[in-house]
Every structure is written in C-alpha cells, then in structure tokens.
Design goal:
- The complex is a heterotrimer of chains A (857), B (258) and C (316).
- Helix content of chain A is 25%, strand content 12%.
- Chain A is α/β, with parallel strands linked by helices and 857 residues long.
- Chain A has a six-stranded mixed sheet.
- In chain A, strand 24 (774-776) and strand 25 form a beta hairpin.
- The longest helix of chain A is centred in the middle third of the chain and has 20 residues, at 448-467.
- Chain A starts with 5 loop residues before the first helix and ends in a 10-residue tail after the last helix.
- Chain B is an alpha+beta fold and 258 residues long.
- Chain B has a four-stranded mixed sheet with strand order 8-1-10-9. A two-stranded antiparallel ribbon of chain B has the order 2-3. Chain B has a two-stranded antiparallel sheet with strand order 4-5.
- Chain C is mostly helical.
- Chain C is built from twelve helices and no strands.
- The chains are: A alpha/beta (857), B alpha+beta (258), C mainly alpha (316).
- Chains in contact: A-B, A-C, B-C.
- At the B-C interface, strand 2, helix 2, helix 3, strand 6 and helix 7 of B face helix 1, helix 3, helix 4, helix 5 and helix 7 of C.
- The complex binds ligand MGD (2 copies), iron/sulfur cluster (5 copies) and molybdenum atom (MO).
- One iron/sulfur cluster (SF4) binds next to helix 1 and helix 5 of chain B.
C-alpha cells in the first residue's frame, strides 16, 4: 500500500501511531513491510490457503462473533442436499460440467428455494452460463435469489447449515497445511491469527486492505471471498474501522465500474441485456429483478436510465427504447476481443487511456491483434508503445512484424490531462470528488468528453444527411439519443456538470432528484446512474463540497459525496446490534433512535431510516420492504452477509485453494490442480508452462510475480515520459534473493534473462535480502520480482514484463493471472532478433510444451 | 521572525520520493541523469546541485524494528541542514550566500560568482556547483514559499509527515517527545541528529530522527563548521608571516647597503 | 576505508555498512580545477617570496637581483590572477569578489590582500622599466620605489600564508586538520621556491641572501611538514600515500637535493646555482600540487570524514 497508495498510506501510519498493529502479507518485503509490525512472506498465489487457515482458526477456537454472525449472515441457512463440497469430490463442487468447464450452480442453493433446472431445456442453460458468465454483473448487488424461503436452523445444529458446511470445508486448513502451501511457519501464522482475532469483537474492529496482489489470479474473486468470510465471522463488516478495503487503481477506476467501461454492465451494476435471454424489457426485468433488496427497484432504475439515453423518444409504448440497447452474445471482455482481432473478426479499436502493448498480459498477442485491424484510435498524452508498435515494437526486431505489412490505420489524438478538464473522480470509498479545470489544454489536446461528444455529434449529422426524411431503423438508436450538452470555452468542451446532473437525474418537472428512492418505472423520472442519484440534489454539485474535516464531525459527510446517498460506510446498520444499539460505545456509528423512531448517528444510515429493528417483512413483500429491520446488507437480496454464496459465482460457493495456472507445485489438497472453471486460451500464441506434476514443469522451477513501484505508473505512459519520475527508477530490473543469485550465478547490477512459454525478457539484477526463499512442500522455492512499468518508448526504456505473462483468467471477472506464474531465470542478456524466438522455442521443446500442456488438469 | 526549519522523522518515511519530485517541480531543478545505481531503491545517490532532497535507502539484515523480520529497510530524506553556523555562508566571498529572516541559508544566484569555496566548506557535502552554469545550488528551504506563508514543497508533498516544517524550537520539542515515544515502544535505536544547539554547527535548522548511526545514512557523525577554528588559523598564519619576514630580514642583514 | 568497491558489479545490494552509505563520500569534492587553484597557491607564494627578495635587494643595493625579483613578482602575480579568473569561468566574476569585505572568508580577505599587493608590485615594475611611465611621473615613481618595495614585502608575507588558511578553512579533512602547520609549510615553500628562482636568474655575486633564504625556507617547510604529518595520523594519510603522497615525497627529495646543491655548488658555479634553484622552484610547485590533491582525496573517501569524527564522539 505504501508503494502504490502512498497518500492513502498516511492513514495507516496514523493508525499505527494510535496503537494499531499493521500486518503486511506479501511475497516480497516492500516499502509497506518496512513500516509494518509484522511482515508475512508467502508464496505468490497461496493466499486462500492462508486466509482459509485463519477461517479455520476462528471456527476451531470459537472466536467468531456469535450474535453478529447469527443475526447478520446466512450462517443458519440450510444448503440443499444435492450440494457436494470440494472435500467430497476431490477439488470439484457439485454441478461441474467437464465439457463446458463451467458450473451449474443449482445444487448450491438453499433448501426451500425453488430452482428452475427442471423447467429449463439444455441449450437455454448454455446461454444462462454465458449470461451469468460474469460475477461483475452482481457488482454491488449479489445474484437474484430464485423464489422461495430458505430453510434456517438458528440452533446451528443442522449438519447442512452454512456454518457447519464452512467448518467441514475448512477443517483441513491447519497451520501445518498453511506452512506446506504458503511457506509460512506456524509460529508466524499463530502470531497473525492472535493479532487479528484479538483486534475483533464488540469493542474492536480490524480492516483488510487489498488491491491487485489479491485479484490478478485465476482464483482472484475467491481470494476476496475468503477475506469476506473471515470478516463476517469476526463481525468486522459495516462497522467503523472494519471492512474489506479494495484499493483501486487509476484515478476514478471505481467510477469506471460504477458507470462502467465494462462490456457486461450498464450504469449502477445493472446487467447488460443478453441477445437471446432478454428480447424484451419485460423479459429482462423478469429475469434480473430480485424479490428483495435495493435491486428490487430495478425497473425504476433501468427505465430512468433509458429515459436518460433516449429522452422523449423513450415511451411506455416502445418499452422505453429497450431494443436500442446493445445486447451481449457472449464474452466480449478485453482478452477475447484481442483474440478476435488476431483472428480477424474485430476490425476497429478505440484506445482511451490505456497502453495494452505494454500493460496487458501476453503483450505480443496485443500487438499482433493491433497489427490485424483496419483502424485504431489512440488518445493519450504521448506516443505510447500502443501507438508506435508498428514501427518500433519488439516484433520489428524479431521480424514477426514488417512495418510495410501492417494494414492498420492508426489515428493518434493528444489527450487533455485531468488538470485541463473538469470532472469527478470516484475513489475507492465510493467518494465522488469534483475537479475543476486548472488550465486550458494546449494545441490539439482535447478532453475525452470533448472527443466523444463531438464524434457523436458529427456521426449524427452524417446519418441525418444520409437518411434524409425516411430514417433507417438501424440508425434510430444513435439519431434518437439525447445528445444536447451545453458546451463552453474556446474548444466547445461539453459542460461536465451538465453530464453529472443527467447522471443524477430529474423528475417530471425537470427538478434534480434527491435520491434513488424517488426513481419511477413509469418514465416520469430520468437518471443516468441510480446509485449516483443525489449527487446533484438541490441543484448543487454535492461532489464539489470541500468543507475541511476540522469544521465537521469525524465522518466528514460534507467533503465530496459518496454513493449511495452519501453513506460513508456501506451496510453501517451492522454497526448496531439487532435491537439497534451500538455493539459498543467505542465503535458506535449509527443507531436506532426510539424517541424519534428513526435511524441516526455519525454517518448517514445505510438503511431505510424509519424501519424499526423489529420489522419483519410480510409474505410477498418486495424490494426494500423485503429486507428485515435487522438485515444490514441491504443491497443483497436477503439483506444478509453471505458466508456461503448459493448463486452468482462461476467457480463455486466457497473459496478453496487451487494452484495457479502455472505452478512448480502440485495441489496438496486435491488431485484437482487449478481452478476448474478458470479461462484458459490454449493457442500457439498463448502457450502455458507445464504445471505441477506435468512433465516439463521442472524447466520453470521459479515463481515470478509482477508489481508496481512508487516511482512509476503502470504501463509507464504517465511516468516514463516525465524526467523527474523516470530518473528515480531508470531501468527494468528483477529482484532476487542472494540464494537464488548464487544458484543461478546472477550478479548484482548485472543482467538476467527471464523465460516463460511465451517469451524471454532481460532485466538488470537487483540482489536483495528483501527477497526470501521459502520452504514449500519441503522444498525451497525462489521467487522473482518483476516491476512491469517499462517499454520501448520514453526517457527510460526496457523490456515489458507482460511479454512473459500468459492469458489465464479468473472466470468471474476475466482478470489475468499476472501475480503468480512459473519461470526460469538465467544470467546475461537475452538474444536479439530471431535468435530470441529460438531461445524460447528451445525452452518449449525442452519442456514438451504444446497447446495441450497446462490446459487442464 | 522566529527561526523556521525541518524535523525529518525517518521512522515514518516510506521512501516514496515525493519530496524529491516536489522539490524539482517547484524549483525547476533539472533531472540528475537516468542511472541505475543498485543502491537499493536509491537512484539519486546524494544531494547535489540538481538534487536538493535525497532519499536514502538502507537494507539491513539486523532486525531491530521488527523482532521476527529478517531484514530492516531504513529510508531517510536528506536535505541542506541550514546550519546555525554555516560553513558555506561563512566562506562565501561575495555575500551571495546569506541568512534569511527565517534563519535559513540561501544562495543568491545573481551574485554567486562560482568561486566554489562553499562546496568544500560544507561539513555535510550538500551544496555543489552546476556544471553548465558554474554557479552553486542547494535547498532554499523554499524561501519563496515560506515568505508567502506556504510550507516548503517537499514537506507539503510528504504523505506521512515524515518531513515536518515549522518553528525550530517547537520542532525540537516535538522531536524529543517522538524519540521518547519510540524508545518506550522498543525502538531503542531512535535518536535525534542535528537537534542540539551545541554541536559542531551550533545545531541544524533541518534536523533528523534516525534509527541508526548517522554515517549509515551518509551523514557525518560529528560535523564541525570549518570556520570555528578560523581565528586560530589566522593567528598561525600571522606567525608564519612573521617568520617569513624575519627570515627575509635575517638573510639580508649581513649585507651593508651601498 | 570504504567498505566496498565503488561501481562495478557487487554480489548484492551491499549490506548496510555502519561506517558509510554504499562507500559514497560524505563530503563534496572541491570543484576547483587543480592546475588553476594549485597553480594559484604556488604562484601566489612566488609573487610574495620574490617581492621579499626584491625589497631586500633594494635595501641592500643589489640592482640586478632587485630588478629580476620585481619582474618575477609581477609575472607570478599575473599568472595567479589569470588562474583565478579561469577557474571562475568569466573575468567579470572576479569583480564580485570585491563586492564585500568578509573577514570570515579567507577568499575575500585574500582578494583584497592580493589587490593591495598588486599596487606596490606594479610601482616596483614601473620603477624598473621607466619606459612604461610618462616622463613627468617618473620622479614620483622613483620616490615611491623604496616604500613600495617594503610594503610589497610586508603584504607579501600575507599573500604567502593566507592561501594556507584558504584551503584549511574547509571541511576537507586533510586540509582542515592541518591548519596549524600549513601556513609554515606554505611560507617555507614560498621562500625556498622564490629563492630558487633568484638562484636561477640572479648573478652569483648578488645571490648570497637568496642562498641563505633558500636553505632557511626549505628547512622551515620540511620541519613544518614533518611535524604536520606526525601529528595528523590517519587524516594525514593522503600526505603520505596516493598520488598526492608521491608528489610530496618527490617535492621533499627535490628540496633536499636543492638545498645540498645550493650549499655545495651554489656559490661556485652558475650552472650549479641554476640547478639548485630549479630544484627548489620545482619542489615548491610540487608541494602545492601535492597538498591540493591530498585535500581532494580526503573528501572522496568517506573514511577520512567518518573515522576521525567517530573517534571524537566515541561509538555512538
Ligand atoms: N505508484 C503507483 N501507484 C499506483 C499504480 C502504479 O502503477 N504506480 N497503479 C495503480 C493501479 S492501476 C492499481 S490497480 C493499484 C495496484 O496496487 P497494488 O495491488 O498495491 O500494486 P501491485 O504492486 O501490483 O501489487 C501489490 C503487491 O502484491 C504482491 N503480490 C503478488 N502476488 C501476491 C499474492 O499472491 N499474494 C499477496 N498477498 N500479494 C501478492 C506484490 O508483491 C506487490 O507487492 O495501484 C495504483 N497505484
Ligand atoms: N504484469 C502485470 N500486468 C498488469 C498489472 C500487473 O500488476 N502486472 N496491472 C494491471 C492493472 S491493475 C492495470 S490498471 C493495467 C494498467 O495498464 P494500462 O491502463 O494499459 O497502462 P497505463 O499506463 O495506466 O495507461 C494509461 C494511459 O492513459 C493515459 N492517460 C492518462 N490520463 C488520460 C486522460 O485523461 N485521457 C486519455 N485519453 N489518456 C489518459 C496515460 O498517458 C497512459 O498512457 O495494467 C494491468 N497489467
Ligand atoms: S497518485 Fe494520486 S491517487 Fe495515487 S497515491 Fe498519489 S495522490 Fe493518491
Ligand atoms: S548544510 Fe552545508 S550547505 Fe547547508 S547550510 Fe550547512 S553548510 Fe551550508
Ligand atoms: S560559489 Fe557562489 S555561493 Fe559559493 S562561495 Fe562562491 S560565490 Fe559564494
Ligand atoms: S525546502 Fe524547498 S528547496 Fe528545500 S528541499 Fe524542500 S522543496 Fe526543495
Ligand atoms: S515524501 Fe516523505 S515519505 Fe516520501 S520519501 Fe520523502 S520524506 Fe519519505
Ligand atoms: Mo489497476
């Protein structure tokens, strides 16, 4: 965190000064470790075992927060008889389909819930796989529960109640197993377990902070699930000082999931309609609207969104232009898109603020895809590798790309920086903060808002001319869009505040809405993103508020604006007990005020403010009304924290340890080596290292992980071109332990070549005791650290670590496994030109790598 | 105008180098070359005409801060000490170096004639001459900012408040408290450097909380302003001059004038 | 000494050595260019020594010695001025030197001293070369000749010794620690060097005092240097070792040889006197270059900074 979120880390330093114990779990000893009380070096890719060990520790020693867990989680829910755990099926959950390599999740359901398996015919189920194909779609909601009441056993005696399922599932996660998988000695594990559990309970809370060290795995989502289970058991959710803090990436990357740049989501985590499943608005709402929870109002959210898109053209009579929405036909996420470029199916590409030729896994495949386009638009500050690969990319040197053969027409547009345009950043706390333009962009530099708006304007003009009077229905979705933002300044930049106001939405009289509860499904309200509704309440840009913390309470509600409804701690109703009293004075955040019969407190209650703690939803109650007065997790369909996930995840209701897609070790738990639902694209241009017991795995005996340095930013576009940053970390290097240096004859400041099935890169060697060899399964394992910031352009250049990384993805969110793979490392620089390909080929031959290897075990 | 200075608490430095960058941005200091030094994460090397803040990185096997840690990683942001008795200022023949109303030591670039005398005069090796323009440059303690009531750029940018700017007396007070805090928390190596008014430079305007010996960070253990002995130097020189003349007179004494 | 080789390939990020930061110097290397500043130390000494000899010659009525010494003095002064300006980069920058008078700055004091010294030195030369002076003024110059000679010698004693303070008033360990003896070394070196020059240019009959001064100056320099090195111990190392140490050893050898030749042949043969003088003149130059380098070397190796200071404060 000190490395990649230094400014946020000041609060950790402050907490430490106030007596907090800081624990850093990381394969490497980093700048964060330097300030931590405890550093836990573990093998990259083994955290589920570590966290599972902690879950087991909490359950075995009865350290879980009984009152909290019983009331606020699904611990007492009884799971269907058909459910089989990985412990029963040697690494598979019930419902696995070996052909599809996907799970059908019906057997994971609770007792008492009706599931549609029986009524469904097979091919419809196939589309269901695809539509459910992304856990992202349940971003802040969680999956819709099929109808019915789950069977519960509040005595927790029932062998199939979630808590007992959990106990059995994690029983084997002992300190010894943790040591065998992670290389963490029991003494250190015990130290962490004590520190964590002693910091949780009525008077204390512990927080988990993670970022991509936990997500870039073929089991990334399940990593976070493990933490969620632990935090729910310890009662650390929805309470001050608790939670699981997902540190985000680029400025406003949170905003770009709320109002997404993701292919499968509409604003506010509404699922993108599927071509086969959602032929009508009715079908869409029927299939996606859960009975309970805030998503119960999905019709109001979606209709208001359609009104924002198509304004007066969106009418009840035409389903509010629902068919104007693009529909999914499958997985259109980033990597499959690149593959379709390579295959010649995807012909044009817009790249706004991204440098995939350096920043994305299997960088060569990215460049090969770019080389196979008709046109490419790149908007950036400088001529990044993604704009110049065709003349100076690595394939030019190896002869794999000849400039004269590249048919792609490349358009480069200089972008305006955040200082040159107004707008909002949404940070990791869901906090929107407004940014005012400081200076006008120079020359041809323009904001992205300018580009998109005027591109749309020009296209609409051309279509209007082309169509004349008789408008081709194909063009209506574009022509009928509301595209009328006021512009300002010499460049005719659209007024960003008018966009924010549209996102907030307005009522029938055109007055800005004050919150999503006033949204209607009859077309009388307009709202660009329901969770942001209220950011422009009272016609005021609430995100622009900057009242100093010293002039308000410690929650500082008047600094910026947080979705939903300016609530700073999500699910904060859990900070009070079922009767609405704070669990402890020390940890009071919101509580039920009997006198005024309403919820109140330091923070804005994340709860219907007049709903009594004793409220019981009547039968057939819907949406928010279906949430009981003691059910804090209001976005979930049942208001509960899910220890066990009956539906919504593609790779199982519980996290369990699988080895990374490429690993020098076998999975000691099951014969199922890696996540059976992971996405692997086995192709000539995306080969995998043999893994585990596979023949040739020993050719890649080391683990490597990639990461960031404070001094650089991601693919380098924002640091390699700035001398003041570039000089601070001028060269691509690898971090290795003295032991590995000795084993492989690597010299400090010398060169090393790192090799995988995809490629070989060269890096300067930094031998450091911060890298420690670990003992895993009785064997010493060395880890190699590779920062991934360099490429061919800028003040400082070097090979890109992403040449090494292959495409093996998490099945829920399609993120690449760039944090834990296997490799070989050797002294000296890499060969140049075609000889480089030779070297990689030799490795493939030695390891017997084919399209099949490491594809599936 | 009370004396202003820095208390740099290296025990909470995270080595982010924001101070180095902020300083260069504010003062338009040129880059210092793109060289990988292999000194842990330090690619700046040392203070100089083109680096007015320098973050040192020291990797130690000696576990101190964390009992069961195998290594310790010290980070510390160095800067001009703005000495009470400043060697650079004392020896400057042109008056280019001067003491501001904040008690800081600043170079006036329009007066500096590049004689370079201040360079070896500094007991901390801070000030240096720029190759291209031949004049010397160093931290100004953001004379232009603090004059307007702003805190120096480096302190402003420091996320953890490792760099604390303020009135020297108050800072010294705070620093002593911080050391006690750390020592009682078991960080026995914590000690102040440059905080004492009776050290060799009469106390530094920018002082530090260190977790090891100064020389580990590249700082002199007991710096002394060279001019402390200047009077004695002149006395010796006068004596030598006397001998010089005396020998001359003696040598010619024998010969009578014609 | 440094704990590890600087640069090159090391086996790993060097273990933090408690005596230094990656063997990097603590101090800044003086930016002065050796040939100019060491040269300046030398020529300043010669200008001063020759002024002294000129005065002596004037008082004792040895015209050719006086003439040659006065010319040498101005020449040396000119060279030292040139060296100073070259090191500053631009001539006008010397003007800034006289912006203020700062007693705490030996360079400031020196600048004024040198400027003051220039006046009588100039008058002396005008007196020797009347052609330089407009007729009506010649009598004035004549009358000023004696006072000028004497004041030049007096100021010269400062010029010869202030340069020692100039370098000792720095943090360069080997210079600073040497301040008690350095002025005597410089004074002696100035005398022997200048006397050496006199032996080279003056007729034997007028070189008697020069021979005496040569020997006296040499003895002064050698004994002071001896004392200095014995006292300094570790920080004195650069005076004994490295390139600087070798230069100083050579300088001593040449001085001794010069003295011997002076005593044995100085009075007998012109050639002998010339040889002796050349040896002493060269030795004086070598001494200043050796001393200069010693100081520089002492800034480049952190050991010379850290070790003595560590001993001073004791193990922290
Ligand atoms: N200075 C700077 N700041 C940044 C960025 C930048 O490039 N530079 N990028 C921004 C972006 S886009 C993002 S997404 C965030 C990312 O922020 P972080 O996630 O903090 O960044 P990383 O360095 O990629 O990964 C963090 C750590 O994960 C560790 N790690 C690797 N594998 C594992 C594992 O299996 N388990 C565990 N426990 N740890 C593992 C790595 O050693 C590394 O230290 O940072 C943002 N902030
Ligand atoms: N091996 C490995 N690979 C990784 C990761 C890893 O940890 N390891 N991390 C992954 C993660 S988390 C991320 S986020 C990606 C990041 O990878 P990329 O997003 O591809 O890399 P960036 O350098 O952040 O690209 C952002 C570009 O946007 C430009 N830019 C900045 N502001 C603007 C703007 O306002 N408008 C426009 N048009 N352009 C702008 C910048 O100049 C920069 O070139 O890398 C991923 N790849
Ligand atoms: S770069 Fe911006 S967002 Fe990232 S830590 Fe620094 S200040 Fe925060
Ligand atoms: S540290 Fe050096 S440069 Fe800074 S004031 Fe002191 S003597 Fe001058
Ligand atoms: S270099 Fe400039 S600042 Fe330094 S002493 Fe000479 S004149 Fe003064
Ligand atoms: S005070 Fe100003 S000049 Fe000095 S280091 Fe900090 S930023 Fe640079
Ligand atoms: S900004 Fe602060 S924390 Fe960062 S390196 Fe400088 S002193 Fe350390
Ligand atoms: Mo990211």
């Amino acid at each position: 965190m000190a490395e990649a979120h230094p400014v946020g880390f000041q609060w950790v330093v402050e907490a430490k000064a106030r007596g907090a114990t800081v624990i850093h779990v990381d394969p490497r000893y980093t700048r964060t470790s330097a300030l931590a009380d405890i550093h836990v070096p573990l093998r990259a890719g083994s955290d589920i075992a570590f966290l599972g060990g902690l879950v087991n520790y909490v359950l075995q020693h009865d350290l879980w927060f009984r009152d909290y867990v019983l009331a606020y989680t699904n611990a007492s829910f009884v799971v269907r008889e058909q459910f089989r755990d990985t412990e029963d099926l040697d690494g598979l959950f019930s419902g696995y389909d070996p052909e599809e390599r996907k799970y059908e999740s019906e057997s994971w359901q609770y007792d008492g819930i009706k599931v549609g398996a029986d009524e469904q015919d097979p091919e419809e189920r196939v589309t269901k796989y695809e539509q459910k194909g992304s856990g992202h779609q349940f971003g802040s909601g969680g999956a819709a529960l099929d109808p019915g009441e789950p069977v519960k056993d509040l005595t927790l005696q029932h062998p199939r109640c979630v808590l007992n399922v959990l106990k059995r599932h994690f029983a084997r996660y002992t300190p010894e197993l943790v040591q065998e998988i992670c290389g963490v000695p029991p003494a250190l594990f015990d130290k962490v377990a004590r520190a964590l559990t002693s910091a949780s309970g009525r008077d204390k809370t512990a927080a988990f902070v993670y970022s991509v060290g936990w997500t870039q795995h073929t089991v990334g989502v399940q990593y976070i699930r493990s933490a969620a289970i632990l935090q729910l058991l310890l009662g650390n959710m929805g309470r001050p000082g608790g939670g699981i803090v997902a540190l985000r990436g680029h400025a406003s990357i949170q905003g770009s999931t709320d109002i997404p740049t993701l292919y499968n989501l509409l604003p506010g985590y509404l699922p993108m309609p599927h071509a086969l499943e959602h032929e009508s608005l009715h079908e869409y709402l029927h299939l996606n609207t859960p009975r309970g929870g805030f998503y119960g109002q999905m019709p109001a959210y979606l209709v208001s969104l359609l009104k924002a898109y198509w304004g007066d053209n969106a009418l009840p009579t035409n389903e509010f232009c629902f068919d104007y929405l693009p529909k999914l036909t499958g997985d259109h996420s980033s990597y499959p898109t690149v593959i379709s470029q390579v295959e010649g199916k995807c012909k044009g590409y817009f790249i706004f603020g991204e440098n995939p030729a350096v920043g994305s896994a299997n960088a060569k495949m990215q460049r090969m895809g770019l080389s196979n386009l008709d046109w490419l638009v790149v908007r950036d500050f400088s001529l990044i590798e993604t704009a110049t690969w065709w003349k100076d990319g690595p394939e030019i040197e190896t002869g794999e790309i000849r400039t004269e053969d590249v048919g792609t027409e490349v358009f480069f547009f200089p972008a305006a920086a955040h200082t040159e345009k107004s707008g909002s950043f949404t940070n990791t706390q869901r906090l929107l903060q407004w940014r005012h333009k400081a200076v006008e962009p120079q020359d041809d530099q323009r904001s992205d808002l300018w580009f998109v708006f005027h591109l749309g304007r020009v296209i609409r003009e051309k279509l209007r001319v082309a169509n004349g009077a008789a408008v081709d229905s194909r063009d209506r979705p574009v022509l009928e869009l509301t595209w009328d933002y006021p512009t300002e300044g010499s460049h005719a930049d659209p007024d960003a505040e008018s966009v924010l106001r549209e996102i907030n939405g307005w009522d029938a009289d055109g007055k800005a809405l004050s919150g999503y509860t006033s949204l209607q499904d009859d077309g009388s309200t307009v709202c660009g993103c329901w969770i942001y509704c209220g950011v422009y309440a009272d016609e005021v840009n609430q995100a622009a508020r900057r009242k100093p913390g010293s002039e308000q309470n410690w929650v500082a509600p008047e600094w910026g604006w947080a979705w939903p409804m300016n609530r700073r701690v999500l699910y904060n109703r859990a900070s009070a007990d079922p009767d609405g009293r704070p669990w402890s004075e020390r940890k009071a955040l919101v509580w039920w005020d009997e006198k005024d019969a309403k919820w109140t407190g330091h923070d804005v209650p994340d709860f219907a403010d007049d709903k009594r703690p004793s409220y019981e939803p009547g039968y057939g109650a819907r949406a928010a009304d279906a949430i009981g007065g003691a059910d804090p997790f209001v976005m979930q369909t049942d208001g509960k924290g899910w220890l066990y996930v009956p539906s919504g995840l593609t790779d199982g209701p519980l996290p369990t340890h699988y080895e990374p897609h490429e690993s020098p070790f076998t999975n000691p738990l099951y014969s199922q080596q890696a996540n059976p639902a992971r996405q692997v694209f086995s192709r000539r241009d995306n080969l995998s290292n043999p893994s585990g017991a596979e023949r040739g795995a020993d050719v890649f005996p080391y683990v490597f992980t990639t990461y960031r340095l404070t001094e650089h930013h991601t693919a380098g576009g924002m640091s390699r071109w700035l001398p003041y940053l570039a000089e601070l970390q001028p060269e691509f290097f690898c971090e290795v332990s003295p032991e590995l240096a000795r084993e492989r004859g690597l010299a400090h400041l010398g060169w090393a070549t790192i090799v995988t099935a995809r490629a070989a890169v060269e890096a300067r060697v930094l031998v450091t005791e911060r890298m420690v060899p670990l003992t895993v399964q009785g064997r010493v394992v060395h880890q190699v650290g590779l920062p991934y910031h360099w490429g061919a352009n800028g003040y400082v250049t070097g090979d890109a670590a992403n040449e090494l990384v292959g495409l093996a993805l998490d099945p829920n969110v399609h993120i690449q496994e760039s944090k834990a793979s296997s490799c070989d490392i050797r002294p000296g620089r890499r060969p140049r030109g075609p000889a480089l390909l030779q070297l990689v080929d030799n490795y493939r031959r030695r390891a017997g790598i084919t399209v099949e290897t490491a594809d599936f075990q | 105008m009370s004396r202003m200075g820095f208390f740099t608490d290296t025990s909470i430095c995270i080595g982010c180098k924001a101070c180095e960058v902020a300083c260069k941005e504010w003062n338009s200091v040129p880059d210092d070359g793109f060289n990988l030094l292999g000194m842990s994460f330090d690619n700046t090397g040392m203070l100089g005409a083109n680096s007015w803040r320098h973050v040192a990185f020291i990797e130690q096997s000696k576990p101190v801060a964390q009992p069961d840690a195998h290594v310790r990683w010290l980070m510390s942001s160095d800067v001009c000490k703005h000495c009470t008795h400043a060697g650079c200022l004392d020896v400057c023949p042109t008056g280019s170096l001067f003491r501001t109303e904040f008690g800081t030591v600043v170079v006036q670039e329009d007066i500096c004639n590049g004689c370079g005398y201040c360079v070896p005069a500094c007991p901390y090796g801070v000030i240096d001459r720029r190759e291209d323009d031949g004049r010397v440059w160093k931290c100004t303690l953001c004379y232009d900012r603090i004059g307007d009531g702003l805190e120096p750029a480096c302190a402003k940018a420091c996320p953890t408040d490792s760099i604390q700017f303020g009135e020297l007396d108050e800072l010294r007070e705070r620093a002593r408290g911080r050391v006690d805090e750390l020592v009682s928390a078991g960080v026995v190596d914590a000690r102040l450097y440059g905080a004492s008014p009776d050290d060799g430079v009469g106390g530094a305007g920018a002082f530090f909380l260190l977790l090891d010996e100064p020389e580990v960070y590249g700082l002199p253990p007991d710096p002394v302003v060279p001019t402390r002995d200047l009077a004695s130097m002149w006395r010796h020189a006068a004596a030598a001059a006397g001998v010089f003349l005396g020998l001359g007179v003696a040598a010619f004494a024998g010969r009578r004038s014609s | 000494m440094t704990e590890r080789r600087r640069g090159g390939e090391r086996l790993m990020v060097p273990k933090a050595e408690f005596s230094s930061y990656y063997g990097k110097p603590v101090l800044k290397r003086p930016v002065w260019e050796e040939r100019y500043i060491a040269g300046y130390l030398f020529t300043g000494g010669i200008a001063a020594g020759t002024a002294l000899l000129a005065a002596g010659a004037d008082v004792t009525g040895q015209p050719s010695l006086r003439r040659s010494m006065r010319l040498s003095s101005l020449a040396a002064l000119a060279v030292s001025g040139f060296a100073l300006v070259r090191d500053l980069g631009r001539p006008e920058r010397f003007a800034n030197m006289l912006r203020v008078f700062k007693p705490t700055s030996p360079m400031s004091v020196g600048s004024w001293l040198l400027s003051a010294f220039a006046l009588p030195t100039g008058i002396g030369v005008m007196d020797e070369v009347p052609a330089l002076v407009p007729r009506p003024l010649r009598s004035v110059v004549r009358r000023l000749s004696r006072p000028a000679a004497v004041s030049a010698a007096a100021l010269g004693s400062g010029v010869a010794t202030y340069t020692a303070v100039l370098i000792c008033d720095t943090s360069a360990p080997s210079w600073h620690a040497a301040y008690p003896e350095m002025p005597f070394v410089f004074a002696g070196s100035a005398l022997s060097g200048s006397a050496g020059l006199a032996l080279m240019v003056a007729p034997i009959r007028e070189a008697g005092s020069a021979r005496t001064l040569a020997v006296a100056g040499a003895l002064l320099e050698l004994s002071a240097a001896q004392r200095m090195e014995r006292r300094l111990g570790f920080v004195g190392e650069p005076y004994r070792e490295h390139a600087s140490g070798r230069k100083l050893k050579a300088a001593k050898a040449m001085t001794v040889a010069g003295v011997a030749t002076t005593v044995l042949l100085g009075r007998r043969s012109r050639a002998g006197a010339f040889l002796a003088g050349a040896a002493l003149f060269g030795a004086s130059a070598l001494t200043r270059f050796g001393v200069f380098e010693a100081g520089v070397i002492s800034t480049e190796d952190p050991a010379y900074t850290v070790r003595p200071q560590r001993e001073r404060v004791g193990e922290g």
